[in-house]
Specification:
The protein is of the alpha+beta class. It is about 50% helix and about 10% strand. Helix 1 runs parallel beside helix 5, helix 2 packs across helix 3 and helix 2 runs antiparallel to helix 5.
Amino acid sequence: MPTALTIEEHGEGIGDAWTVLRDNAARAGLWAPVPTCPGWTVRALVAHQGMVHRWAAGCLRGERADDEACAVVEREGLASPDLLAWMDEGAKDLLSTLAFAPADLDVWFFLKDSAGPRQGWARRQCHETTIHAVDAMSAARGSVPPAAETWIHAELAADGVDELLMGFVPRRRTGLELPEPRTVVVRTTDTRQAWTLSAGDGRTTSSVGEPAAGAADVELSGTAAQVYLALWNRGDEVSCTDPALLERWRSDVQVLW
């Protein structure tokens, strides 16, 4: 569903996450491994985030870069004498571009549930940066941080759950494949929200709210921050009545950008 947060709240979320990412990257060191992104160093994480911020800002300006152009930008970041400062430049440009974009901006955006490209890009980059800031935290502490030890508040977390379940999951390439059809209900215990997924029968479909009484085959629940991190494959603090389904989720539902 379209976000309930304002563009100013998403902008604040980008700024908060950018600060957390930067501080933890500096604390960990650029060559530290990132537990939540096997095979990555902090250096790779920061270069990736700096590239994505520049890519999103370009999309907001109507400049849609292809994969090769993005790879060139990432290599430029890796070659920078001050990688963190290079990331800072991209984040500042993204926030400035969002701030000055008109409310009725007409550019490409890839999630169909968005209220519009400006709001959609603000929301996407808020959660992109938030999840990667958690990655930086994991590098600094050497393990995945519990949800309660992050800065992520319940409303922002629930918004990220909604973006994933209503925007990404119904896309064919990120759907959940199961050996038989299942109805899955996802609940946040603090914000009292629910989403229902119908999976395993071709394309996964999603809806906001509870399924019909007795219709859920699997229930997954936790605080909004716990559910957010678990469904973005950054935590395992949720309660799930079918642990095998949660494992399948981790292999099937991976958003790489």
